[in-house]
Design a protein that fits this description.
single chain, 179 residues, mainly alpha, 76% helix
Length: 179
């Protein structure tokens, strides 16, 4: 996919905006237990403007963000995520698409999501590790609590995933298998 438009300036701006969104969303989520539309909306407009100005507002961008939205909406509908999580993930996926120049195609959000899950594992271990050390653990309940731990952990994991975006999950899995 080397024919897709890519600019290091656009990638830097997308990464900076994603980190700003993550920091502000983490703050509002921790204080209010919600991520308001008035926060996510301007960043969504910013992602569209950045995509347009950098020449990334093309079919691949629309398909990538639409696919990420469909995934996030499905997670919301089945109760795995709250509405703020879905909105946040969709906008972060838009910034991710710009930052990577469309590498990974319409399912690039899967790399973002899986890297976020991998980054979240140490946080989940700290949150639930003490209980897991007990003799009887209801793993289903622990998993349900971890899934509903809130967007703050997902935001931290998403920001970390942005920094490891150049190492797709397939490469990470190959690295673990080789070790």
């Amino acid at each position: 996919m080397s024919s897709l438009p890519f600019s290091s300036a656009a990638a830097g701006a997308a990464t900076t905006l994603a980190i700003a969104l993550g920091a502000i969303a983490a703050y509002t989520d921790l204080r209010q237990r919600r991520v308001p539309n008035l926060l996510v909306g301007p960043f969504a407009v910013g992602a569209l403007a950045l995509a347009f100005l950098s020449g990334n507002l093309a079919g691949w961008f629309v398909l990538s963000v639409s696919t990420a939205f469909a995934f996030a909406y499905a997670a919301y509908r089945i109760g795995a995520w709250a509405g703020g999580d879905a909105k946040f993930f969709t906008v972060i996926a838009a910034f991710y698409a710009i930052a990577t120049g469309g590498a990974g195609g319409p399912f690039a959000f899967a790399t973002l999501f899986l890297n976020s899950v991998i980054a979240m594992l140490p946080i989940a271990a700290m949150m639930f590790g003490g209980r897991a050390a007990g003799a009887k653990v209801d793993w289903k309940a622990v998993a349900a609590k971890a899934a509903k731990a809130g967007i703050a952990g997902a935001i931290v994991a998403g920001v970390i995933a942005f920094f490891v975006k150049s190492a797709p999950v397939g490469s990470l899995a190959a690295g673990f298998a080789a070790a």
